[in-house]
Amino acid sequence: PTRRSSDLLAIVGRASSDANRAMSLAIATAAGSAGQVVGPPIAEGLLATMPWQSVFFVFAVAILGILFLLPMVRSPHVASKAELEESMGTVLTKALRDPSYTLIFLGFLSCGYQLGFITAHFSAFVTEFCGPIAPVGILVGMGVSTTSALGALSIASIGIANISGPPMVGF
Please, are residues 45 and 105 in contact by the beta-carbon 8 Å criterion? Predict the structure, then answer.
């Protein structure tokens, strides 16, 4: 999770009732992992057909397209004048006194490091240290014929676990 995902979670948290807030945040967190499930296999497929510079351009265009949808994401709650005039120190003091904030902060901190490490190193590790894919093995039957495809599938598998985890905790 990044700063942007925590902003989205703040909007979801404000828009949800107290009774539904935990599940709403869990669903939003799980949805954030969808990119981890979809992105690596798409990147692997694109890299098989075009140079990395073109793949980068395709993803950049997709991100720019999504940016045009951002004006539709609005919080139904309008901040009061008193809330807008609170100093950053006051807001931070309130947050640090709330145990939920401390737990979510520690969760994002550890999750961010884990995701940074996994996405930067794990697929390369699998690609470099994996033996050749057997032409008649189970992986080929699943559509994985190269070690780079295996790395993409590995990242996507971790994303599936990330999607299933938060809703279980939100119940």
Answer: no
